Amino acid sequence: MREQIKDQGRLEHMLEAIDRILRYSTGLTIENLRSNEIIYYGLVKNIEIIGEAAYKLTESFRSQHQETAWRKIISMRHVLVHGYYQIKEHEVLYVIEDDLPTLRNQIAKYLSETDWEKWEKEATE
Questions:
Q1: What is the pLDDT of residues 1-32, one digit of tens each?
Q2: Can you give the pLDDT at residue 64?
Q3: Phi-psi sector, 27: left (phi>0), alpha (psi -120 to 50), beta
Q4: Which pLDDT does position 86 carry in this prediction?
Q5: Hey, what long-range contacts does 79-82 have (CB within 8 A, 24 or more apart)?
Q6: pLDDT bracket for residue 93 (50, 70, 90)
Q7: Is residue 33 part of a domain?
Q8: Distance between CA 111 and CA 61 in Å, rounded?
Q9: Residue 123 falls within a domain, yes or no?
Q10: Domain count for the chain
Q11: Residue 1: inside a domain
């Protein structure tokens, strides 16, 4: 049986996905996004990963870190997965340019400032 991924692992997944998105979207325009389906769907998939990892975080972690818009992140994932046909390229680009840099800073802060050994011990008690 696989070990359950804990909050630290989920945050690491989010950070990795954000970094991939930022790496592959540098200098990207709407026209580039519309003309390159592979890049577009790769970016969308990584936004989905961010939302899924956020969804899988413990409620305790999310409630202790309310400065992050967890519900919006999770909702975005649901829209991308279930309402994929409604998403416009400019919305994806907006998330990348306006939301991800702030989210990246928050996630990096959580990863560096949390005493993970203590956190996981308290989570299992």
A1: 455 679 999 999 999 999 999 999 999 999 99
A2: 93
A3: left
A4: 86
A5: 80/44, 80/47, 80/48, 80/51, 81/48
A6: very high
A7: yes
A8: 12
A9: no
A10: 1
A11: no
| CA quadruple 7, 13, 15, 21: dihedral sign | negative
Burial class of residue 85, CB neighbours in 10 A (0-12, 13-18, 19+): exposed
* Token digits of residue 76: 């975005």
In the chain, % helix, strand, coil (3-state, to 5) comes to 80, 0, 20
Q: Is residue 124 part of a domain?
A: no
Give the tens place of pLDDT for each residue, 55-72.
Answer: 999 999 999 999 999 999
Share of the chain above pLDDT 90, in %: 77
Alpha carbons within 13 A on the beta-carbon side of 67 = 8
User: Furthest-apart CA pair in the chain: how many Å?
Assistant: 52
For residue 30, the surrounding DSSP H or E stretch is: helix 30-35
Domain that holds residue 109: 7-118
Residue 106: how many other CB atoms lie within 10 Å: 16
